[in-house]
Write a structure and sequence with these properties.
The structure is a homodimer of 528-residue chains. Chain A has 17 helices and 23 strands. Chain A has 528 residues and is α/β, with parallel strands linked by helices. Chain A folds into three domains: 204 residues, Alpha-Beta Complex (Polyamine Oxidase, Chain A, domain 2); 175 residues, FAD/NAD(P)-binding domain; 91 residues, Up-down Bundle (de novo design (two linked rop proteins)), CATH 1.20.1440.240. Chains A, B: It catalyses: L-tryptophan + O2 = indole-3-acetamide + CO2 + H2O. Chains A, B: Pathway: Plant hormone metabolism; auxin biosynthesis. Chains A, B: This is Tryptophan 2-monooxygenase. Chains A, B: Its EC number is 1.13.12.3.
Chain lengths: 528, 528
C-alpha cells in the first residue's frame, strides 16, 4: 500500500495546483494528448525460436493482445490473472453480478436483463485504430456512442440560481457575445496590425454568420439567434405555426455557467465525433479477446514475486482460492500489472524501472449506474444519449446510447467523478454514493429522478481490489524523468498497458503499448 | 407548368439577392426556423357526425396522418393518390427499383440488397416530437443519424489550393484565432465599456480555455492546440509514443475555407444532435403509416378538378393506368397536394387561397446516391457517418450511418445540391449527374472514389413528375402576404403539408400542419 499512499499524496497535491471547479475538465484533458494513434496494422511477428516461452502477467487487453500475437509468432505463452475473469478494466456489470470492493462492501447488481454499467472504459474514439481493428477482427459489434448532444444540460451551482440550461443555449450565447465583441474591436481598429483590411472585413462577415448577429452586428433576441439557442415558442404547423424568439443570456451569466469548458471538451481529440461502444456493454471486447486465446489463462493467480536472471524469468504466485503457492518459469515476461499493484510486488527489476513504477500516480474515478423505470430523459426532455454536466461532485450524468425509444427500465450513468469528488464518493458506502447521485442528479430532472429510480451500482476505482486506482496519470515532469525507464526492456521483462503509453487511460494506449512491447521483446529474443 | 415557371423565376431572383457561395448554407438555414415543435400529443378527436365523409388528396405523411386520425374520430375517409405507392417524398430507392423522371429518363437502381438512397427526407431532429411519436406508435425502428463529424472534410476551391481539410482543424483554428484576437482587444481596453473588469478577466480565461491559447495568450503550434486540431505525429504507446504538434493555419487561410458556415450550420436547430434515421431507409416511415390505414387509398388517381359547394366537395380524377375519369364526393376535403401541382389543377377555391397557392416557390434539390465496393471512407479516412462539405455544385457528400464497419458495398450520398447547382445537375441526364458527382467528390477521396464506384442513382426534384420541385420555400414577404390565406379553411377544403407550416421542408411540418388542419376541420364539421 506504500505506492498507493504516495499516489494519493501526489494527486492531492496536483489538485491543489489546479484548483476548484475546473478540475474535472483539466483532469479529463490532461490525461494524454490522444488524437490519432500510431497503429499501422497488426504486427507481423514470426519465427520465434523453437520452444521459446513467454509468461504474461495480467489478462487485460494489453496482456491478451500480447498473448494472441506472441502465440501467432510461435511462442509458448501463458497468462497469469488475479481475477476469475479476463478483461481487466474492460468490464461491464449486469443484473445478477456481484462485486466486492476494498473495505468489504458487496453489491448485488439488480439491473434488468440487457442493462449494464461500464465501470471503466465506455466509449471509443474513431481514431483508436488498433482497438477498432481488433474489434472487427474478433467480431465485436460496435454501435454509435452519442458523445455530443446539443440538447443536454449544463449545470453550475454558481449560475442561473442553480438552474441547468441547455448546452445549445449557453454555447450559442457564448459564441454570439464573442462575435459581437470582436466585431466591435475590429471596428475600433486596434487590431489593424494583426491582419489586412480585407481579412478584417472577411472576419467580420464570418463573425456575423457564426455568431448569428443581426444587421447591426448585435447579438440580440430575434428569430436568428433563436435558430441556434432555441425558441420561446417553437415553429409549428397551420394557423398558429409562427415561432417567437427566446431571450438571450447576458455575457456575465454565460460566464457564470462555465460553458466554454464543455465547448472545449467536445473539441478534444478523444471526445470528437464519431465515437462508439460495443453492443451489449464494453465488457464484450474483453470477452472477444479472451475467446481468441483459449486455454492460455490461469485465473485466481495472485503474483507475489517476479525474479529474472540471465536464463529466464520466475514468477511466484498463489492461488487465491486455495492459497497454494506456485512458480511459473519462462524465457520472457510481459508484465501488464497496473503500477499501483506492481509497486507492491517483490522483484529484482532494475532500480530505474522500480523508480518509474513508483512515480506514476493513478486517477480515482467513481462511476455510478442508476436504473430508472423509464427513459424520462427521452420522453420528457428530448435528450437521446450524451451528457449533462455539473460542477457538483458527480461531474456529469450520461444517458444510455442503446435501445433509444424503447420502453422499460434503462440504466443511466449517474456519476463520473474524479479528483476531490472521486475521493469523497469513494470514501462512502455504495448506498451513500447512490443517495448522493440521486440528490445531485435531480437538478437536471427534478420531477422524475427519484420517482423513477429502481436500483444502482457503483465502482470507486480507488477501492477496486486488483488495481486500487483507475489509470495512470502522467505529468510532463514524470514523463521526462521516468517514462523511457518504464517502457524500456529490463533484461527479460517488458511492461505493457495504458500506463506505458501516451494514450493514457484509454484501451488504445494499452493495445499500442502492448504491440510496441512485444515487437521489441521478439527482436530481443531473436538476438538472444 | 405555369406555376413551375414562376417558381423558378422567383428562386433565381432570390439567388441573385443572396449571391455566390454562401447560397447553399443560406438556403439550408432559411428553410424555416424549426427548433422545437408545437406537438402536444396526438389529437383527441371524436364524435364525428354519423356518415360524415372526408376525401384526402395525397397519401404522403400529411394525408395519411389526416386519414388515420379522422378515421379514429369517426369519419368515413378515402385517399386519392397519384402514385402507385404511399409515402410521397418519404421514399427510399433500393436495388431493383425503377424510376422515370420528367423528360423520360429511366433509372434502374442496381444497389446491393439493403442499400438505399433517400431522395427526400433523410434525417430526423430530436425535437420533431410529432414524427417521433408516430414512429414509435407505428413501430418504426430508429437509429442514430450521425450529423456532426469532426473528422470529415471541408473543401473550398478558393482555399488551401483546393485541398480539403478536416473540419476539426479548421474549426479549432477559427476558434483559436478568434480567442487570441479578442484577448488582445480586451487588453487594449477598448471594450471596457461593454463589461465589468471582473467579467473582462473571466472572459479572458474563458477564451484561453476555449481557444486552446498558451500561457502568453497566443494561439500557436503546440501540443495544446493540436489536442483540438489534430497532431502531426499522434500519441502512441511504448518507446516512440510521444506526440508532436501540427502546424496551425493562419487566419487568412481559415477565412478562405469558410469553415464558420459549417460551424454555424451545425448549431442550427434542425441540425443539432441527436438526429435519427429509420433502420432500412426513410421510406420505412411511409410504409408504416400506410399499414395503419389499410384499404383507404386509391392509387394511380390523378386529380384534375376540385369543386366545392355548400353541400360538399367533388373531386374529379382519372386513373393513370386506364385513363378512366371518375368523380369522388365527400362532405369535406383535406388537400395535401404540393402547391406546384395544386396550382395546375382546376378548382373553385377562393381567390385568396389560389393566390397563396401560386405564390410559394419550391426548392430544387438534387440527391445522388453512389454505391461503392467498400467503405474506404471508414477504413482509409476514419470517417464514420457525417458530411464532407464543398463549395462545388454537389454541396456535400454524406457517409452512410448504418452498417458501420461492415464489409461489402455501401451507398454514400454523392450530392445534395440546391440553388444554381441544383438547376445545373437537374438539367443533366442521370448519367451526366453521376459523372459530375464522381469528379467533384473525388476531391475528398482521390485514390478511391472512381476506383471503388459501382453504380449510382439520382433524383432531381424539379423533374419528379408528381411534385416538380422539392419543398416550399417561404420568405418573410410571402409569409406576410399569403400564409394565413393558405392555411385557412376555405369552405369545406383545408390544405395540409409541409408547405402549410413554419417547419417547411421537414416531415414534422407536414404532420403538425395536418394535425392543425384536421382539428379545425373537425370543429367546423361539428358546427356545420
Amino acid at each position: 500500500m506504500q505506492g498507493q499512499k504516495s499516489t494519493r499524496r501526489q494527486v492531492l497535491s496536483a489538485i491543489g495546483v489546479l484548483g476548484g471547479s475546473a478540475l474535472l475538465y483539466n483532469m479529463m484533458t490532461t490525461m494524454g494528448y490522444a488524437a490519432e494513434t500510431q497503429f499501422a496494422g497488426p504486427p507481423k511477428l514470426s519465427g520465434a525460436k523453437k520452444g521459446a516461452s513467454v509468461v504474461v502477467l495480467g489478462a487485460g487487453l494489453a496482456g491478451m493482445l500480447a498473448a494472441y500475437e506472441l502465440t501467432k509468432a510461435g511462442y509458448k505463452v501463458q497468462i497469469l490473472e488475479y481475477q476469475d475473469r479476463s478483461g481487466g478494466r474492460n468490464w461491464s456489470l449486469y443484473g445478477g453480478d456481484t462485486y466486492t470492493e476494498l473495505g468489504g462492501a458487496t453489491q448485488n447488481v439488480k439491473f434488468a436483463a440487457g442493462n449494464y454499467l461500464n465501470p471503466g472504459p465506455w466509449r471509443i474514439p474513431h481514431h483508436h485504430r488498433a482497438l477498432l481493428h481488433y474489434c472487427k477482427a474478433f467480431g465485436v459489434n460496435l454501435e454509435p456512442f452519442i458523445q455530443f448532444n446539443h440538447n443536454a444540460f449544463v449545470h453550475n451551482t454558481e449560475a442561473f440560481g442553480g438552474a441547468p440550461q441547455r448546452f445549445r443555449s449557453l454555447a450559442a450565447d457564448f459564441e454570439g457575445h464573442v462575435a459581437e465583441l470582436l466585431g466591435k474591436a475590429l471596428d475600433q481598429k486596434g487590431l489593424d496590425a494583426e491582419m489586412t483590411a480585407e481579412d478584417r472585413d472577411r472576419l467580420k462577415e464570418a463573425l456575423r454568420d457564426w455568431g448569428m448577429l443581426d444587421k447591426d452586428f448585435k447579438y440580440a433576441k430575434n428569430l436568428r439567434s433563436s435558430e441556434h439557442r432555441g425558441f420561446d415558442r417553437p415553429p409549428g404547423g397551420g394557423v398558429n405555426g409562427a415561432p417567437s424568439p427566446s431571450e438571450i443570456f447576458g455575457l456575465s451569466d454565460v460566464l457564470d455557467s462555465g460553458v466554454w469548458r464543455q465547448m472545449s471538451f467536445f473539441m478534444n481529440s478523444e471526445f470528437q465525433t464519431t465515437m462508439f461502444q460495443p453492443t451489449g456493454g464494453m465488457g464484450m471486447i474483453g470477452k472477444a479477446f479472451a475467446a481468441q486465446i483459449p486455454g492460455l489463462t490461469t485465473y485466481n493467480a495472485k503474483v507475489t514475486k517476479l525474479i529474472q536472471d540471465k536464463k529466464g524469468v520466475t514468477v511466484t504466485w498463489s492461488d487465491t482460492g486455495t492459497g497454494k503457492v506456485n512458480e511459473t518459469k519462462a524465457d520472457w515476461c510481459v508484465c501488464t500489472i497496473p503500477l499501483t499493484i506492481l509497486s507492491q510486488i517483490e522483484s529484482n527489476l532494475s532500480d530505474k524501472m522500480q523508480a518509474a513504477v513508483a512515480a506514476v500516480p493513478y486517477t480515482n474515478s467513481v462511476k455510478i449506474g442508476l436504473e430508472m423505470k423509464r427513459r424520462f430523459w427521452e420522453d420528457d426532455y428530448a435528450i437521446y444519449g450524451g451528457h449533462s454536466f455539473t460542477n457538483q461532485e458527480i461531474g456529469l450524468i450520461s444517458y444510455p446510447n442503446n435501445n433509444l425509444f424503447k420502453d422499460g427500465p434503462a440504466v443511466l450513468l449517474g456519476a463520473f467523478s474524479s479528483g476531490m469528488g472521486g475521493y469523497h464518493l469513494g470514501g462512502m458506502s455504495p448506498e451513500e454514493r447512490i443517495e448522493v447521485a440521486l440528490t445531485q442528479g435531480s437538478v437536471f430532472h427534478p420531477d422524475s429522478y427519484r420517482k423513477e429510480f429502481l436500483s444502482g451500482a457503483s465502482v470507486a476505482w480507488s477501492r477496486v481490489p486488483w488495481i486500487q486506482g483507475c489509470c495512470a496519470r502522467w505529468t510532463e515532469e514524470t514523463r521526462q524523468a521516468h517514462y523511457q525507464d518504464l517502457v524500456a526492456m529490463d533484461g527479460r521483462v517488458v511492461l505493457a498497458g495504458e500506463h506505458a503509453s501516451y494514450v493514457g487511460c484509454w484501451m488504445e494506449g494499452a493495445l499500442l503499448s502492448s504491440l510496441d512491447a512485444i515487437t521489441r521483446l521478439h527482436k530481443r529474443a531473436l538476438e538472444a
